[in-house]
Amino acid sequence: MPGRPNLGRLTAEDLTALRAEPRATAVLNFWFGEKWETEGLPNPTERLGVWYGKSDALDSSIRQSFGGDLDRLLEGRLDGWRSSLLPAVAGIILGDQFTRNARRGTASMYDADAKTLEWTHALIADGSIARLPYALRHFAAMPLMHSESLADQELILELLKRWHGELSSQGGDDEVVEFVQTAIPYAEGHVDVVRRWGRFPHRNAILGRPSTQEEEAGLRDGSIAAW
Predict the structure, then answer these.
(1) Where is this region: Disordered (predicted)?
(2) Which CATH architecture describes the domain 12-221?
(3) I need a surface site. Which of 62, 63, 114, 145 has the fewest CB within 10 A?
(4) How far out from the chain centre does Cα 152 lie?
């Protein structure tokens, strides 16, 4: 791909498969900017407002533009995206990221987690996740960080540390290296919470799960992190 070095190894066939799925293309263009294919991926700081911003305007935009796609994903009508690398990444972002925006504050924001986690594990198992430019790889792996499985939490931490080492030693953009480095403490925090509590206690209320007295105390005093 032209543009800034990103250590990705996408092929022309990968991009052709993406263009055959217009809605998958729309997901990636929204998340990474419409020129990411031709001009290279932006540095992470240029997209932080989209990736991590919390605003009614952003949530509404995602809900209006991609609400129908979310329904189709959950109904299994986008399962064909799994057979190609970039559409699979688009499906993961749709179910893992867009769902949290479009359905923020409701239990249904987690409805696609099992599906996206399965897709992520498939990309890791066949090695194709390593062919992605880093920003795409990062979000393809994020269902692991949202999982309440300790094995998944330990895996994402391992991957982030490995990728940080690779990017540092192979000439990745400084801002990309810093972005990965910043993600590692967040991953460590997730590991700590799941190891201690076996779940994310801050989800209990929205999911209708009873909290233990210890969890309630930790959530009140902030000793249990919430994301």
Answers:
(1) 208-227
(2) Alpha Horseshoe (1.25)
(3) 114
(4) 13
Question: Contact, 43 vs 176, CB < 8 A?
Answer: yes
Helix, strand, coil tally for the chain in percent (to 5):
75, 0, 25
Report d(CA 160, CA 186) in Å as an integer: 11
62 three-state secondary structure: helix
Domains of the chain, residue spans: 12-221
- Average pLDDT for runs of 10 along the chain of length 227: 55 95 98 88 89 94 98 98 98 98 97 98 97 95 98 98 92 87 97 98 97 98 94
| Residue whose C-alpha is closest to residue 155's, from 143, 139, 172, 164 | 143
Dist CA 138 CA 159 (whole Å): 9
Single-letter amino acid code for the residue at 12: A
